[in-house]
Amino acid sequence: MIKVEDLHKSFGKLEVLKGITTSIQEGEVVAIIGPSGSGKSTFLRCLNLLEIPTSGRVWIGEEDVTDKKTNIMKVRQNVGMVFQHFYLFPHKTVLQNLTYAPMKVKGLSKDEAEKIAYALLEKVGLSEKANEYPTRLSGGQKQRVAIARALAMQPNVMLFDEPTSALDPEMVKEVLEVMKSLAHTGMTMAIVTHEMGFAREVADRVLFLDDGVLVEDAPPIEFFSNPKSKRAKDFLEKML
Amino acid sequence: MSLDFTPFIPSLPYILEGIFVTLKIVLLAGVLGFALGIILSLFKISSIKILLWIADIYTSIFRGTPLVLQLMLIYYGSPQVFGYQIQPYTAAILSFALNSGAYVSEIIRAGILAVDKGQREAAQALGVPYGKMMWDIILPQALKNILPALMNEFITLTKESAIVTTIGVMDIMRRSYQVGAENYSFFEPLLIAGLIYYLMVITLTFLGKALERRMRRSD
Lengths: 240, 219
Fold this sequence. Notes:
The structure holds two protein chains of two kinds. By secondary structure, chain A is α/β, with parallel strands linked by helices.
Protein backbone atom coordinates (compact mmCIF):
# COMPACT_ATOMS: atom_id res chain seq x y z
CA MET A 1 0.00 0.00 0.00
CA ILE A 2 2.72 2.46 0.97
CA LYS A 3 6.33 2.08 -0.02
CA VAL A 4 9.09 4.41 1.05
CA GLU A 5 12.56 4.27 -0.44
CA ASP A 6 15.59 6.11 0.91
CA LEU A 7 13.53 9.11 2.04
CA HIS A 8 15.56 12.20 2.93
CA LYS A 9 14.23 15.52 4.19
CA SER A 10 16.22 18.58 5.15
CA PHE A 11 15.07 21.94 6.45
CA GLY A 12 17.89 24.22 5.39
CA LYS A 13 21.02 22.69 6.87
CA LEU A 14 19.15 20.50 9.29
CA GLU A 15 18.72 16.98 8.01
CA VAL A 16 15.59 15.62 9.68
CA LEU A 17 15.19 12.36 7.77
CA LYS A 18 18.36 10.52 6.83
CA GLY A 19 17.27 7.90 4.39
CA ILE A 20 14.23 5.89 5.48
CA THR A 21 13.16 2.75 3.67
CA THR A 22 10.08 0.82 4.70
CA SER A 23 6.67 -0.26 3.52
CA ILE A 24 3.17 -0.57 4.91
CA GLN A 25 0.89 -3.33 3.70
CA GLU A 26 -2.80 -2.93 2.99
CA GLY A 27 -4.81 -3.20 6.20
CA GLU A 28 -1.74 -2.86 8.36
CA VAL A 29 -1.67 -0.60 11.40
CA VAL A 30 1.76 0.86 11.99
CA ALA A 31 2.74 2.87 15.05
CA ILE A 32 5.61 5.30 14.56
CA ILE A 33 7.33 6.17 17.79
CA GLY A 34 10.49 7.88 18.89
CA PRO A 35 11.83 10.80 20.91
CA SER A 36 10.73 14.31 19.98
CA GLY A 37 12.79 15.69 17.14
CA SER A 38 13.38 12.21 15.78
CA GLY A 39 11.59 13.09 12.55
CA LYS A 40 8.50 10.95 12.97
CA SER A 41 6.01 13.72 12.20
CA THR A 42 8.08 14.84 9.24
CA PHE A 43 8.13 11.26 8.01
CA LEU A 44 4.33 11.08 8.21
CA ARG A 45 3.91 14.45 6.51
CA CYS A 46 6.13 13.31 3.64
CA LEU A 47 3.65 10.53 2.90
CA ASN A 48 0.95 12.94 1.70
CA LEU A 49 3.45 15.56 0.62
CA LEU A 50 2.60 18.18 3.22
CA GLU A 51 6.39 18.17 3.29
CA ILE A 52 8.17 17.71 0.01
CA PRO A 53 10.96 15.12 0.39
CA THR A 54 14.46 16.35 -0.41
CA SER A 55 15.17 13.03 -2.08
CA GLY A 56 13.89 9.49 -2.14
CA ARG A 57 10.62 8.03 -3.31
CA VAL A 58 7.19 7.39 -1.86
CA TRP A 59 4.54 5.20 -3.44
CA ILE A 60 0.92 5.26 -2.34
CA GLY A 61 -0.78 2.31 -3.98
CA GLU A 62 0.55 2.20 -7.53
CA GLU A 63 1.34 5.87 -7.61
CA ASP A 64 4.80 7.38 -7.17
CA VAL A 65 3.76 10.53 -5.32
CA THR A 66 7.28 11.97 -5.49
CA ASP A 67 7.08 11.92 -9.29
CA LYS A 68 6.49 15.50 -10.47
CA LYS A 69 3.87 14.29 -12.96
CA THR A 70 1.66 12.79 -10.26
CA ASN A 71 -1.39 14.83 -9.32
CA ILE A 72 -0.80 15.38 -5.60
CA MET A 73 -4.35 16.59 -5.03
CA LYS A 74 -5.71 13.35 -6.40
CA VAL A 75 -3.42 11.31 -4.15
CA ARG A 76 -4.35 13.31 -1.07
CA GLN A 77 -8.03 12.55 -1.63
CA ASN A 78 -7.23 8.94 -0.88
CA VAL A 79 -5.02 9.64 2.12
CA GLY A 80 -6.83 10.92 5.19
CA MET A 81 -4.90 12.88 7.77
CA VAL A 82 -5.61 13.67 11.41
CA PHE A 83 -3.59 16.40 13.12
CA GLN A 84 -2.51 16.93 16.68
CA HIS A 85 -4.42 20.21 16.85
CA PHE A 86 -7.52 19.01 14.92
CA TYR A 87 -7.69 21.97 12.54
CA LEU A 88 -11.44 21.76 12.11
CA PHE A 89 -12.83 24.60 10.03
CA PRO A 90 -14.12 26.94 12.76
CA HIS A 91 -16.59 28.81 10.54
CA LYS A 92 -18.36 25.62 9.49
CA THR A 93 -20.62 23.40 11.53
CA VAL A 94 -19.59 19.84 12.35
CA LEU A 95 -21.75 18.56 9.51
CA GLN A 96 -20.33 21.11 7.06
CA ASN A 97 -16.81 20.14 8.13
CA LEU A 98 -17.61 16.61 7.05
CA THR A 99 -19.45 17.39 3.83
CA TYR A 100 -17.23 20.20 2.51
CA ALA A 101 -14.45 18.19 0.86
CA PRO A 102 -16.64 15.35 -0.46
CA MET A 103 -18.86 17.94 -2.14
CA LYS A 104 -16.25 20.41 -3.34
CA VAL A 105 -13.46 17.97 -4.16
CA LYS A 106 -15.18 14.75 -5.13
CA GLY A 107 -18.31 16.40 -6.46
CA LEU A 108 -20.81 14.43 -4.36
CA SER A 109 -24.29 15.86 -4.05
CA LYS A 110 -25.32 17.41 -0.75
CA ASP A 111 -27.59 14.46 -0.01
CA GLU A 112 -24.90 11.86 -0.66
CA ALA A 113 -22.32 13.78 1.36
CA GLU A 114 -24.69 14.25 4.29
CA LYS A 115 -25.65 10.61 4.28
CA ILE A 116 -22.00 9.62 4.60
CA ALA A 117 -21.43 12.35 7.19
CA TYR A 118 -24.30 11.27 9.43
CA ALA A 119 -23.21 7.65 9.27
CA LEU A 120 -19.69 8.64 10.30
CA LEU A 121 -20.89 10.93 13.07
CA GLU A 122 -22.85 8.05 14.46
CA LYS A 123 -19.76 5.86 14.36
CA VAL A 124 -17.74 8.38 16.36
CA GLY A 125 -20.70 8.96 18.68
CA LEU A 126 -21.39 12.60 17.83
CA SER A 127 -24.65 12.53 15.86
CA GLU A 128 -26.25 15.07 18.16
CA LYS A 129 -23.44 17.58 17.51
CA ALA A 130 -23.99 17.75 13.75
CA ASN A 131 -25.16 21.36 13.77
CA GLU A 132 -22.80 22.71 16.41
CA TYR A 133 -19.77 24.81 15.61
CA PRO A 134 -16.39 23.33 16.57
CA THR A 135 -15.76 25.89 19.34
CA ARG A 136 -18.61 24.31 21.28
CA LEU A 137 -16.90 20.92 21.38
CA SER A 138 -14.39 19.47 23.81
CA GLY A 139 -10.94 18.48 22.58
CA GLY A 140 -11.84 14.82 22.41
CA GLN A 141 -15.00 15.59 20.47
CA LYS A 142 -13.08 17.82 18.08
CA GLN A 143 -10.60 15.07 17.35
CA ARG A 144 -13.38 12.55 16.76
CA VAL A 145 -14.96 15.00 14.30
CA ALA A 146 -11.54 15.45 12.64
CA ILE A 147 -11.27 11.69 12.21
CA ALA A 148 -14.77 11.57 10.76
CA ARG A 149 -13.94 14.46 8.44
CA ALA A 150 -10.93 12.59 7.06
CA LEU A 151 -12.98 9.41 6.69
CA ALA A 152 -15.74 11.26 4.83
CA MET A 153 -13.44 11.32 1.80
CA GLN A 154 -13.44 7.52 1.98
CA PRO A 155 -9.66 7.24 1.89
CA ASN A 156 -7.63 4.06 1.55
CA VAL A 157 -5.04 5.15 4.08
CA MET A 158 -5.27 7.16 7.29
CA LEU A 159 -2.36 9.11 8.75
CA PHE A 160 -2.47 10.22 12.38
CA ASP A 161 -0.02 12.83 13.63
CA GLU A 162 0.01 12.58 17.44
CA PRO A 163 -3.78 12.56 17.56
CA THR A 164 -4.02 12.52 21.35
CA SER A 165 -1.06 14.70 22.32
CA ALA A 166 -3.08 17.91 22.62
CA LEU A 167 -5.90 16.33 24.62
CA ASP A 168 -6.66 16.43 28.31
CA PRO A 169 -5.88 13.02 29.79
CA GLU A 170 -9.53 12.11 30.36
CA MET A 171 -10.27 12.59 26.66
CA VAL A 172 -7.51 10.42 25.27
CA LYS A 173 -9.47 7.23 25.66
CA GLU A 174 -12.50 8.24 23.59
CA VAL A 175 -10.25 9.12 20.66
CA LEU A 176 -8.20 5.94 20.96
CA GLU A 177 -11.42 3.92 21.04
CA VAL A 178 -12.50 5.43 17.74
CA MET A 179 -9.09 4.67 16.24
CA LYS A 180 -9.19 1.15 17.57
CA SER A 181 -12.53 0.41 15.97
CA LEU A 182 -11.25 1.94 12.76
CA ALA A 183 -8.27 -0.40 12.87
CA HIS A 184 -10.67 -3.33 13.21
CA THR A 185 -12.37 -2.35 9.94
CA GLY A 186 -9.16 -3.15 8.10
CA MET A 187 -8.12 0.45 7.40
CA THR A 188 -4.46 0.97 6.59
CA MET A 189 -3.16 3.28 9.29
CA ALA A 190 0.10 5.03 10.12
CA ILE A 191 0.05 6.57 13.58
CA VAL A 192 2.67 8.81 15.14
CA THR A 193 2.00 8.45 18.84
CA HIS A 194 3.33 8.61 22.38
CA GLU A 195 0.62 6.23 23.60
CA MET A 196 2.74 3.13 24.16
CA GLY A 197 -0.17 1.11 25.51
CA PHE A 198 -2.17 1.84 22.40
CA ALA A 199 0.74 1.01 20.11
CA ARG A 200 1.28 -2.29 21.87
CA GLU A 201 -2.37 -3.23 21.75
CA VAL A 202 -3.48 -2.05 18.31
CA ALA A 203 -0.44 -1.82 16.05
CA ASP A 204 0.71 -4.67 13.83
CA ARG A 205 4.14 -3.15 13.64
CA VAL A 206 6.16 -0.55 15.45
CA LEU A 207 8.61 1.72 13.68
CA PHE A 208 11.11 3.32 16.02
CA LEU A 209 12.75 6.46 14.66
CA ASP A 210 15.65 8.24 16.26
CA ASP A 211 17.58 11.17 14.83
CA GLY A 212 16.07 10.74 11.37
CA VAL A 213 16.95 7.07 11.11
CA LEU A 214 14.62 4.07 11.21
CA VAL A 215 16.27 2.20 14.06
CA GLU A 216 13.80 -0.62 14.62
CA ASP A 217 10.95 -2.17 12.72
CA ALA A 218 9.27 -4.98 14.61
CA PRO A 219 5.94 -6.34 15.85
CA PRO A 220 4.95 -4.62 19.11
CA ILE A 221 5.42 -7.69 21.31
CA GLU A 222 8.96 -8.06 20.14
CA PHE A 223 9.75 -4.35 20.24
CA PHE A 224 8.38 -3.67 23.69
CA SER A 225 9.67 -6.78 25.42
CA ASN A 226 12.96 -7.10 23.64
CA PRO A 227 14.19 -3.97 21.86
CA LYS A 228 17.40 -4.64 19.99
CA SER A 229 19.03 -1.25 19.93
CA LYS A 230 20.34 0.69 22.88
CA ARG A 231 18.52 3.80 21.70
CA ALA A 232 15.18 2.03 21.78
CA LYS A 233 15.97 0.59 25.19
CA ASP A 234 16.81 4.04 26.57
CA PHE A 235 13.67 5.49 25.05
CA LEU A 236 11.39 2.79 26.42
CA GLU A 237 12.92 3.10 29.87
CA LYS A 238 11.99 6.78 29.91
CA MET A 239 8.49 6.15 28.57
CA LEU A 240 7.36 3.19 30.65
CA MET B 1 -22.50 83.77 17.33
CA SER B 2 -25.58 83.99 15.18
CA LEU B 3 -26.93 81.01 13.37
CA ASP B 4 -29.92 81.17 11.09
CA PHE B 5 -30.91 78.07 9.21
CA THR B 6 -34.24 79.37 7.88
CA PRO B 7 -32.90 80.71 4.53
CA PHE B 8 -31.45 77.22 3.87
CA ILE B 9 -34.54 75.14 4.49
CA PRO B 10 -35.75 75.37 0.84
CA SER B 11 -32.32 74.14 -0.29
CA LEU B 12 -32.30 71.18 2.06
CA PRO B 13 -33.74 68.63 -0.43
CA TYR B 14 -31.10 69.76 -2.91
CA ILE B 15 -28.29 69.10 -0.43
CA LEU B 16 -29.84 65.81 0.68
CA GLU B 17 -29.87 64.57 -2.92
CA GLY B 18 -26.11 64.61 -2.65
CA ILE B 19 -26.35 61.64 -0.29
CA PHE B 20 -27.18 59.39 -3.23
CA VAL B 21 -24.30 60.77 -5.23
CA THR B 22 -21.88 60.17 -2.39
CA LEU B 23 -23.33 56.75 -1.61
CA LYS B 24 -23.11 55.65 -5.23
CA ILE B 25 -19.46 56.59 -5.44
CA VAL B 26 -18.58 55.07 -2.08
CA LEU B 27 -20.46 51.81 -2.62
CA LEU B 28 -19.14 51.19 -6.11
CA ALA B 29 -15.61 52.22 -5.20
CA GLY B 30 -15.83 50.15 -2.00
CA VAL B 31 -16.90 46.98 -3.81
CA LEU B 32 -14.36 47.42 -6.62
CA GLY B 33 -11.63 48.33 -4.15
CA PHE B 34 -12.43 45.28 -2.04
CA ALA B 35 -12.26 42.97 -5.06
CA LEU B 36 -8.99 44.57 -6.11
CA GLY B 37 -7.73 44.26 -2.54
CA ILE B 38 -8.41 40.52 -2.50
CA ILE B 39 -6.54 40.01 -5.78
CA LEU B 40 -3.59 42.13 -4.64
CA SER B 41 -3.43 40.38 -1.27
CA LEU B 42 -3.28 36.99 -3.02
CA PHE B 43 -0.45 38.37 -5.16
CA LYS B 44 1.33 39.44 -2.00
CA ILE B 45 1.26 36.00 -0.41
CA SER B 46 2.03 34.28 -3.70
CA SER B 47 5.27 32.42 -4.20
CA ILE B 48 5.54 33.88 -7.70
CA LYS B 49 7.99 36.75 -7.34
CA ILE B 50 6.68 38.87 -10.20
CA LEU B 51 3.14 38.98 -8.78
CA LEU B 52 4.54 39.96 -5.42
CA TRP B 53 6.51 42.82 -6.95
CA ILE B 54 3.53 44.08 -8.94
CA ALA B 55 1.37 44.18 -5.83
CA ASP B 56 4.07 45.82 -3.71
CA ILE B 57 4.85 48.51 -6.27
CA TYR B 58 1.15 49.16 -6.75
CA THR B 59 0.55 49.59 -3.03
CA SER B 60 3.60 51.75 -2.63
CA ILE B 61 2.47 54.16 -5.36
CA PHE B 62 -1.16 54.46 -4.29
CA ARG B 63 -0.27 54.85 -0.64
CA GLY B 64 2.62 57.14 -1.35
CA THR B 65 0.75 59.90 -3.18
CA PRO B 66 -2.23 62.06 -2.13
CA LEU B 67 -5.65 60.78 -3.03
CA VAL B 68 -6.72 64.14 -4.35
CA LEU B 69 -3.75 64.05 -6.72
CA GLN B 70 -4.72 60.59 -7.98
CA LEU B 71 -8.25 61.83 -8.52
CA MET B 72 -7.10 64.81 -10.55
CA LEU B 73 -4.54 62.82 -12.51
CA ILE B 74 -7.21 60.39 -13.58
CA TYR B 75 -9.75 63.08 -14.37
CA TYR B 76 -7.56 65.61 -16.13
CA GLY B 77 -5.21 63.04 -17.57
CA SER B 78 -7.89 60.94 -19.22
CA PRO B 79 -7.96 62.86 -22.54
CA GLN B 80 -4.25 62.32 -22.96
CA VAL B 81 -4.24 58.72 -21.75
CA PHE B 82 -7.53 57.34 -23.09
CA GLY B 83 -8.15 59.89 -25.82
CA TYR B 84 -11.42 61.18 -24.37
CA GLN B 85 -12.64 63.00 -21.28
CA ILE B 86 -14.15 60.60 -18.77
CA GLN B 87 -17.04 61.66 -16.55
CA PRO B 88 -16.20 63.16 -13.15
CA TYR B 89 -18.27 60.34 -11.65
CA THR B 90 -16.22 57.69 -13.38
CA ALA B 91 -12.98 59.36 -12.38
CA ALA B 92 -14.16 59.52 -8.79
CA ILE B 93 -15.15 55.87 -8.61
CA LEU B 94 -12.01 54.76 -10.42
CA SER B 95 -9.56 56.69 -8.26
CA PHE B 96 -11.26 55.74 -5.01
CA ALA B 97 -11.40 52.08 -5.99
CA LEU B 98 -7.76 52.01 -7.07
CA ASN B 99 -6.66 53.82 -3.92
CA SER B 100 -8.80 51.80 -1.57
CA GLY B 101 -7.60 48.55 -3.16
CA ALA B 102 -4.06 49.35 -2.04
CA TYR B 103 -5.07 49.82 1.59
CA VAL B 104 -7.52 46.93 1.65
CA SER B 105 -4.93 44.55 0.19
CA GLU B 106 -2.69 45.18 3.20
CA ILE B 107 -5.57 44.60 5.59
CA ILE B 108 -6.56 41.34 3.89
CA ARG B 109 -2.96 40.16 3.69
CA ALA B 110 -2.62 40.60 7.43
CA GLY B 111 -5.91 38.75 7.91
CA ILE B 112 -4.80 35.80 5.79
CA LEU B 113 -1.47 35.54 7.59
CA ALA B 114 -3.31 35.50 10.91
CA VAL B 115 -5.28 32.37 9.99
CA ASP B 116 -3.69 29.27 11.54
CA LYS B 117 -1.34 27.55 9.12
CA GLY B 118 -3.02 24.30 10.09
CA GLN B 119 -6.21 25.37 8.33
CA ARG B 120 -4.34 25.37 5.05
CA GLU B 121 -2.76 22.01 5.79
CA ALA B 122 -6.09 20.49 6.76
CA ALA B 123 -7.58 21.66 3.46
CA GLN B 124 -4.57 20.41 1.51
CA ALA B 125 -4.71 17.05 3.23
CA LEU B 126 -8.32 16.72 2.06
CA GLY B 127 -7.21 17.39 -1.51
CA VAL B 128 -8.89 20.81 -1.70
CA PRO B 129 -7.34 22.83 -4.55
CA TYR B 130 -5.77 26.24 -3.89
CA GLY B 131 -8.61 28.41 -5.21
CA LYS B 132 -11.36 26.68 -3.28
CA MET B 133 -9.20 26.54 -0.16
CA MET B 134 -8.65 30.30 -0.27
CA TRP B 135 -12.23 31.17 -1.10
CA ASP B 136 -14.05 28.73 1.20
CA ILE B 137 -11.65 28.16 4.07
CA ILE B 138 -9.02 30.87 4.46
CA LEU B 139 -10.72 34.11 3.32
CA PRO B 140 -13.91 33.69 5.38
CA GLN B 141 -11.81 33.26 8.52
CA ALA B 142 -9.54 36.14 7.55
CA LEU B 143 -12.50 38.45 6.85
CA LYS B 144 -14.02 37.79 10.22
CA ASN B 145 -10.88 38.98 11.96
CA ILE B 146 -10.35 42.05 9.80
CA LEU B 147 -13.93 43.26 9.68
CA PRO B 148 -13.30 46.17 12.07
CA ALA B 149 -10.31 47.30 9.99
CA LEU B 150 -12.35 47.01 6.79
CA MET B 151 -15.18 49.04 8.31
CA ASN B 152 -12.64 51.66 9.23
CA GLU B 153 -11.43 51.82 5.63
CA PHE B 154 -14.99 52.10 4.38
CA ILE B 155 -15.75 54.94 6.78
CA THR B 156 -12.61 56.77 5.69
CA LEU B 157 -13.74 56.30 2.10
CA THR B 158 -17.14 57.83 2.88
CA LYS B 159 -15.67 60.92 4.48
CA GLU B 160 -12.80 61.37 2.05
CA SER B 161 -15.23 61.14 -0.85
CA ALA B 162 -15.86 64.85 -0.18
CA ILE B 163 -12.77 65.64 -2.25
CA VAL B 164 -14.63 64.71 -5.45
CA THR B 165 -15.95 68.23 -5.12
CA THR B 166 -12.66 69.36 -6.63
CA ILE B 167 -13.50 67.82 -10.00
CA GLY B 168 -17.10 69.00 -9.95
CA VAL B 169 -19.05 65.96 -8.82
CA MET B 170 -22.33 67.09 -7.26
CA ASP B 171 -21.94 65.37 -3.92
CA ILE B 172 -23.09 66.53 -0.49
CA MET B 173 -20.05 68.71 -0.08
CA ARG B 174 -20.35 70.53 -3.39
CA ARG B 175 -24.07 71.06 -3.05
CA SER B 176 -23.80 72.65 0.38
CA TYR B 177 -20.94 74.81 -0.84
CA GLN B 178 -23.09 76.01 -3.75
CA VAL B 179 -26.01 76.75 -1.47
CA GLY B 180 -23.63 78.73 0.70
CA ALA B 181 -22.45 80.74 -2.29
CA GLU B 182 -26.00 81.55 -3.33
CA ASN B 183 -26.80 82.92 0.11
CA TYR B 184 -23.46 84.57 0.79
CA SER B 185 -23.25 82.49 3.94
CA PHE B 186 -21.27 79.25 4.15
CA PHE B 187 -21.33 78.39 7.81
CA GLU B 188 -24.83 76.95 8.11
CA PRO B 189 -24.86 74.80 4.94
CA LEU B 190 -21.43 73.41 5.80
CA LEU B 191 -22.73 72.52 9.25
CA ILE B 192 -25.59 70.71 7.56
CA ALA B 193 -23.11 68.84 5.36
CA GLY B 194 -21.09 67.90 8.44
CA LEU B 195 -24.17 66.53 10.15
CA ILE B 196 -25.11 64.47 7.09
CA TYR B 197 -21.61 62.94 6.86
CA TYR B 198 -21.63 62.21 10.56
CA LEU B 199 -25.02 60.48 10.40
CA MET B 200 -23.86 58.42 7.43
CA VAL B 201 -20.77 57.29 9.32
CA ILE B 202 -22.84 56.45 12.40
CA THR B 203 -25.16 54.34 10.25
CA LEU B 204 -22.19 52.56 8.70
CA THR B 205 -20.71 51.87 12.11
CA PHE B 206 -24.00 50.42 13.24
CA LEU B 207 -24.29 48.20 10.16
CA GLY B 208 -20.69 47.07 10.65
CA LYS B 209 -21.37 46.05 14.24
CA ALA B 210 -24.45 44.08 13.16
CA LEU B 211 -22.43 42.31 10.48
CA GLU B 212 -19.70 41.52 12.96
CA ARG B 213 -22.19 39.99 15.37
CA ARG B 214 -23.55 37.85 12.58
CA MET B 215 -20.11 36.64 11.63
CA ARG B 216 -19.27 35.79 15.23
CA ARG B 217 -22.10 33.25 15.32
CA SER B 218 -19.64 30.39 15.17
CA ASP B 219 -17.71 31.52 18.30
